Amino acid sequence: MVGDAKLLFPLDEQPAHGLVRGAAIRGPAIQSFLAVRKRSEELAEGLSAEDCMVQSMPDASPIKWHLAHTSWFFETFVLAQAGADFRTFDPAYRMLFNSYYNGVGEMHPRSLRGVLSRPGLDEVRRYRAHIDQAIVALLERPCPPEWLALIELGINHEEQHQELILTDLKHHLWCNPLHPVYRAARPVAAHPAMDMQFCEYEGGKTRIGHAGDSFGFDNEQPAHTVWLQPFALGKRLVNNRDYLAFIEDGGYRQPEYWLSEGWERRRSENWQAPLYWQAPESAGQGWRIFTLSGDQPLRLDEPVCHLSYYEADAYARWCGARLPTEAEWEHAAQQAGTAREVFGGFMESGDFHPVPPPVTGAQPSQMFGEVWQWTASAYLPYPGFRTAAGAVGEYNGKFMINQMVLRGASCATPREHFRASYRNFFPPATRWQFAGLRLARDVLG
Amino acid sequence: MVGDAKLLFPLDEQPAHGLVRGAAIRGPAIQSFLAVRKRSEELAEGLSAEDCMVQSMPDASPIKWHLAHTSWFFETFVLAQAGADFRTFDPAYRMLFNSYYNGVGEMHPRSLRGVLSRPGLDEVRRYRAHIDQAIVALLERPCPPEWLALIELGINHEEQHQELILTDLKHHLWCNPLHPVYRAARPVAAHPAMDMQFCEYEGGKTRIGHAGDSFGFDNEQPAHTVWLQPFALGKRLVNNRDYLAFIEDGGYRQPEYWLSEGWERRRSENWQAPLYWQAPESAGQGWRIFTLSGDQPLRLDEPVCHLSYYEADAYARWCGARLPTEAEWEHAAQQAGTAREVFGGFMESGDFHPVPPPVTGAQPSQMFGEVWQWTASAYLPYPGFRTAAGAVGEYNGKFMINQMVLRGASCATPREHFRASYRNFFPPATRWQFAGLRLARDVLG
Amino acid sequence: MVGDAKLLFPLDEQPAHGLVRGAAIRGPAIQSFLAVRKRSEELAEGLSAEDCMVQSMPDASPIKWHLAHTSWFFETFVLAQAGADFRTFDPAYRMLFNSYYNGVGEMHPRSLRGVLSRPGLDEVRRYRAHIDQAIVALLERPCPPEWLALIELGINHEEQHQELILTDLKHHLWCNPLHPVYRAARPVAAHPAMDMQFCEYEGGKTRIGHAGDSFGFDNEQPAHTVWLQPFALGKRLVNNRDYLAFIEDGGYRQPEYWLSEGWERRRSENWQAPLYWQAPESAGQGWRIFTLSGDQPLRLDEPVCHLSYYEADAYARWCGARLPTEAEWEHAAQQAGTAREVFGGFMESGDFHPVPPPVTGAQPSQMFGEVWQWTASAYLPYPGFRTAAGAVGEYNGKFMINQMVLRGASCATPREHFRASYRNFFPPATRWQFAGLRLARDVLG
Amino acid sequence: MVGDAKLLFPLDEQPAHGLVRGAAIRGPAIQSFLAVRKRSEELAEGLSAEDCMVQSMPDASPIKWHLAHTSWFFETFVLAQAGADFRTFDPAYRMLFNSYYNGVGEMHPRSLRGVLSRPGLDEVRRYRAHIDQAIVALLERPCPPEWLALIELGINHEEQHQELILTDLKHHLWCNPLHPVYRAARPVAAHPAMDMQFCEYEGGKTRIGHAGDSFGFDNEQPAHTVWLQPFALGKRLVNNRDYLAFIEDGGYRQPEYWLSEGWERRRSENWQAPLYWQAPESAGQGWRIFTLSGDQPLRLDEPVCHLSYYEADAYARWCGARLPTEAEWEHAAQQAGTAREVFGGFMESGDFHPVPPPVTGAQPSQMFGEVWQWTASAYLPYPGFRTAAGAVGEYNGKFMINQMVLRGASCATPREHFRASYRNFFPPATRWQFAGLRLARDVLG
């Protein structure tokens, strides 16, 4: 619950040494705030104002909209409530950049975000500067803990939108037949392929969910006890080679591996491979894949990505395994601790695409930072879940239906924005996210 | 799991005394089979051939189709595999009455079941007799356990379709502006209204799911351990009086109580009250409700019914409570045991509509036999869940997405067709089933 | 125009010899009325009550609905206005069987006509008898001309629904995979194929539209002058052999022959041939076609049928011709007069399917009575067109948009229900009507 | 017909004095070409690159797309065929900026034109310069007449897109809740309101369609004889005052004035007034209207605009009149000749909005240059219509279905781009064009 979350920035003493948040280190509040704000703008570097206003489908938003909406969030939930000396940049923005908060009032229709040529990108940048200045001014004075908590929420909110900037941009560039390059491809170290191996876990009583001093979203809370049956978890992510075997075995032609709704979706949208895959144009040629570095040959050793839940689930069934539950996944992630192989490259690597795993040791590799991993768990409230009072309570809770939980973090997730208890969620047909899978299976006790 | 289920009818010895199935007593196999088959036909009594062929929406099916499809089930999964001496009634039926089994082959489109004027109702009755005769002939000889298991599955399958016959018929009659009566209304004993009270449960480790000698569907298995937080469960179902207060408080006009998708659905379909409710036409008049006995005044003390998950969930949020999880519900049902108040009227009561509860004692009343109760649990596989091999494995498993579990049993459920572990499931927007709710809340430990 | 139409039954003197209506002879009013009413019921002979209540798509209606609605028409526009002594059969029918007359009030939704199992077919027959009796009683007394005019309109209305009974039934039986037979096929005389020849017409000033003593719909009126360029009209209808050449030449694969909207429709509905055609299952086999006599081999010499306007137009373009305008067609039909070859079999032939043409002489053959012929004319009001006052004015006029005119009459049209000025009309994507084409081309003056 | 059209630029002699085209004067070919090209870019002045890439609905296109596509037209139909020395600017553009010419090959989906952030606006301007240079180079040498004809077609094509630039931009700005201003409003001279009066025409034989030396589209040809009944035509356009009376009389609440499809559309899209009208927010306030100069008070004397055919037709029926046919309109326009009152302001006025009429004399006022006028005629081929060979033949002909003809020209039409025979066409539900109406009525002969 937002209101109760332990604060990143305690009231009296803003630490010079930073605070632990997830597994990462944060600096003092102002620096943290400004760093996140700056990174959003850096993501837009090299893009034109035109690039920043495309909306390629209702699920995706223009980059300019992301830049404005994250500012709107600070304005609406912090500045507008923090006192009389805040001057609104433009009163029309309250409606224009409201995403889905009924408690705030009217909102511009989601599917029409791409028509907002006004305000222009430059104007939105001025809006951002205006908000930055006001938040910094607020933080320079003694600041009540509830505002600090909301600022921290705003920072985490902006990090989520940084990932969306990348996934939405990728979809937009894909819709352009020119398949433009966003960032040049970086060389990737070749690793020998590892056979699929599993780690076993005993099960029994364990505790999941977020607790403690660091930031967590309301939907990760409260921490609570669950009971697990013994299970095993794949030591590495399923990769393109694995998945290609499924395709070549007729996985997209046989309903027996698929959930009924998944098969219907596959048929109606004519899925033949993951999103962004391009079939060989003629014998002898190989598969290609569209990335944020343009069209590339498909690397067989890298984690498969841009799967819907339906595809991930069908693949797992085809190979006699299943998807892990979110509790299993979190339990394993707690065990994995901070071993080096556990972490991938995150957004900061600059790859913007998953890379092959390192040679792994005892722990599952790439739990975080390459692809989100579909779990077999529906996105539902934890026992004792409460939303915050007011409009900010609409943040997560009202979406708890018809969505599946993904765990981990992807190559588009900011490095500071992950933890074992983190719950990402999307409808099962979603394919434009960096989502892949890790296998699980039962262990007979 | 179907193939492993303990048999209703052991191979060598068909008992004269019957076998416990759920809380009910069954006779020997042939009698059980014939009794179920007869009841389906009794449900169609008083209806014309025209009545029996209406399909009022794609989700519902004509009664004639239910009568044929339940026979097809025995033919396809038992008779067609049981030996050379079975003569097919009509080879076209294999496709015509296949509901959704890809493993069996092609199927007539679901939304076009209402165009099948041929075969006529009389022909379908001959088909039923043909199948009945063949199954009885099979049962009169020594019968391998896997066939017995499939016959038992067929009986349970037919019981499920008996409930659907009633819910589909109700929707069909509602679509006819004449609002015809199916069965005359029976007098209902008036009970003084009871305030809402809760039973508390300690939580901790418990076991849910189906195990033991009796029949259970694959989706209830295997039994397994779960961990519950302390909780409380409403002693009675939410009734029309309760729900009317929600309506009158603006529950259908304020998004804050609703899941986001639920609110969208409410808007797009203009829900203002539960399905089948008719608002007062003028001041001074009361609400009315359409039932299988035609239009009736709304009885305030009877359980509210024909709610979607979205409405049940919004109501619970509005009154500061929540829906129970399926594990909580099952745990409570195990405790409730066989106390008299626990059971409602089921289909056999002839009410075809929920009735007000008896004065209750220590246990939650009407856990079974009045309305299905939406739970907060998504319909997903239990740990260790396996489907049967072959097409019959499509029975339940492939629907485990985007559906919510309902527990209990309704006034349209056959009395023998219930148990504490039973998992019913529907998409959250479903309203034409006899579905209501029971409140739950957290108990701080 | 309805109100002004010359009466079939003059007030004072009801003729023993009948009146010319179109090219046909009618008996006195009561006989005419009863004959038409009886024929509707004869069309339902051999069909079960179940057969009579199927609605296979929103555009089509159940036979039972046609039987009731045609009675409703007499009740609503004649009996309800003709005096106090008429007793309504059931007040609910006013809404239940209203097709589209806003001026009459509410109507049961068109797409839900198939849910009306009540009233049953027997009840609808009693309704028909009730109406028959009342109309006969009315006609037995002196009857003001405006009522006579409305009764005549009702007779013509019922004849239109007789054709719809057949086209709707055909679609319904086609949707049933059993492809039931309505009437046994009759032997067809084989005629040697005739090459396509054209009749030439000089053009200039001519007069089209309905005038004179006989009945005509408002949309055929008033008669008026038009100017035609010289043109030529095909002496016979395009037949299956002709059309197959178009298919085999890739007509359904090349957009260049198609209107843009037609091509989109072809793609989205995957048209590969006319409706009801079944492609050869293997080499060596021939095309088959579904008819009201079940599946039959495709007869190459019979007129092609069940085309949309888009297909008819594409075919004409492919062979370097065009569709005639309705004025050209009517001008030619006026010239053709009563030559024997001009007329086909109509509904009364009992073929319920178009037959090959006779050896033709000077006039275009089969102008009437085999297939409706798409024209290049949009369905729009004639100069001076007026609708009748009141709800009956909604009969034709409000549909004058986005529809194309068809001329002639089909094998499902009652023999008395045609004339050179008759305007049938359907949206250009319509395929379930008995619609084919006749070619036209320009003649350079 | 394109190929046969009389040339604007005869081969040997390019006139210094210009050529009559419509009622306007054109300079020599190069100047004409460059003037049109320049005007397109002037329309984009004051707009940002972001403004130029919005697509607010599938029917509308981004301005950048219009700028590129008009260049593509010259490239594809002239330069690519005119010789070996033409260097393609970017081969990808052949597909990217193909609107709908199947004969040219694949095309980028219409509904996704707004995702093309690349090429950017600057790049498209370079593309335009590249094409301009190549066409000028072509025109500087002796040029075969068929190329000249195609260049002239390209000029007219670009003029059509100039109007679309304005209508699409208007819709886009309207979708932005900020309602930005494109060009400042100009003062409008107030004229006293004139009562509706009619000019009468005798009818009889007349000739319509394009003929002669000047340019005309294929769909206006060939000129041909038609026969008209006597009729009368409104001396002025229907204005906002007239139309408001229809609204206030319940015109949008009563189906009796509407075509059946029109009423359905009105209901499903909840039309309550013309597009861009804003109802008074409270009593005492007046209606407002969105224009290319932002929100403005509704001026009662200006022609009503942004009507669908359905609304224009309903209005005419409500006031006991009708829409004119296109032949009636053209006949009247021929009579009106060059009287001053006949012409409005066109695009060149800079109003970008219709203005009240001058005091009129004998002729109908504002036949051209204020609003397009819906006619009662479907858009169909004239007798003897032929399309050009090749892909350019797809220009007009393949759209001749389900559209209605509009006559005249609007305040967004370039002044040189009109003539009495000009046929504009849109589907009847279209509202974003500058379309209004002029009444007609029958005159009893």
Question: Could you provide a short overview of the structure?
Answer:
The structure is a homotetramer of 445-residue chains. Chain A is of the alpha+beta class.
Under CATH, the topology of the largest domain in chain A is which?
A: paralog of FGE (formylglycine-generating enzyme)
Helix- and strand-based class of chain A?
alpha+beta
Helix/strand order of chain A, N-terminal first: EEHHHHHEEEEHHEEEHHEEEEE
CATH class of the largest domain in chain A: Alpha Beta
Q: Distance between the terminal alpha carbons of chain A, to the nearest Å?
A: 37 Å
Give keywords.
homotetramer, 445 residues, alpha+beta, Four Helix Bundle (Hemerythrin (Met), subunit A), paralog of FGE (formylglycine-generating enzyme), 2 domains, four-stranded mixed sheet, three-stranded antiparallel sheet, 14 strands, globular, disordered N terminus, CTDL_fold (chains A, B, C, D)
List the helices and strands and how they pair.
The structure is a homotetramer of 445-residue chains.
Chain A lengths: L18 E3 L2 E3 L2 H15 L19 H20 L10 H4 L24 H20 L4 H31 L22 E4 L2 E5 L15 E5 L2 E4 L5 H9 L11 H10 L7 E2 L9 E4 L2 E4 L11 H10 L7 H11 L35 E7 L25 E5 L15 E3 L8 E2 L3 E3 L3
Parallel strand pairs in A: 10-13
Antiparallel strand pairs in A: 1-2, 3-6, 4-5, 6-14, 7-8, 8-9, 10-11, 11-12
